[in-house]
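Q: I'm writing a short methods note and want an example of a predicted protein-small molecule complex. Could you take the sequence and the SMILES for S-adenosylmethionine and return the bound structure as tokens? Please keep the output block clean; save any remarks for afterwards.
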Amino acid sequence: MTVADAIFSDPRLAAVYDTFDGERSDLDAYLALVDGWGARSVLDIGCGTGTFACLLAGRGVQVVGLDPAAASLDVARGKPHADAVTWLHGDVRSLPRLQVDVVTMTANVAQVFLADEEWAAALEGACAALRPGGRLVFESRRPERQAWREWTRERSCTRAVVPAVGPVETWVDVLDVRGDRISFRWTFRLERDGLELTSDSTLRFRSRAELTGSLTAAGFVVEDVRDAPDRPGAEWVFLARRPG
Ligand SMILES: C[S@@+](CC[C@H](N)C(=O)[O-])C[C@H]1O[C@@H](n2cnc3c(N)ncnc32)[C@H](O)[C@@H]1O
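A: Understood, no commentary inside the block.
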């Protein structure tokens, strides 16, 4: 069983995640694609706290939300329209037989798969869950932009009052840059409880050629590689199709 990072799997951190995750205008492009394709069913891999899954469910789309972090799924279950979503705890290996129109991985989920075998398994699982002709859409940060150079305590430090938790201060520090794997630590200071909690993560920054090659190897046809409209030049949005 995949173990997710503390920021997603520790109930105390999952409870504050959405407050620091902003307005989520990044999801508009995904919504437009799902609408444009006329999709009636979506599998959201790495659905986390379920923001996108619940948005889709509110529009009448049948949604399966999959995530290995039980604490994030618990947050998701409390959101409007959550009752209409099928929540699955686990990774692609735990998927039942599905034939969805679209598979999504929002918010750079694609970068959590560090080993090539793990990434290949995620893509193969996505392909198997799609009906013939169905689409996969995901984003990944462009490595040449070196986004981690901006992940400093000075630039990232934010404070907000989280409902039922109180004031929380958070910041990020990069721990290690090793080839295309970047390790970093989020710190959360929960002022009311006098607690300082940390969560360490590593993300893989694959090249466009690597992502294209891995999609083809998993059986997809790459239809388009676009800019994320809200982060021009910073991310690639891959649109791939399972051949019909
Ligand atoms: C940056 S969050 C994105 C969450 C959500 N997609 C969103 O837009 O808010 C990454 C998510 O990937 C999940 N994750 C980590 N490893 C995974 C795996 N092997 N399979 C599926 N999801 C995974 C984490 O638990 C976390 O919820």
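A: Remarks, as requested: Residues 2, 4, 8, 45-48, 51-52, 67-69, 72, 91, 106-109, 112 surround S-adenosylmethionine (CB under 6 Å). The radius of gyration is 18 Å.
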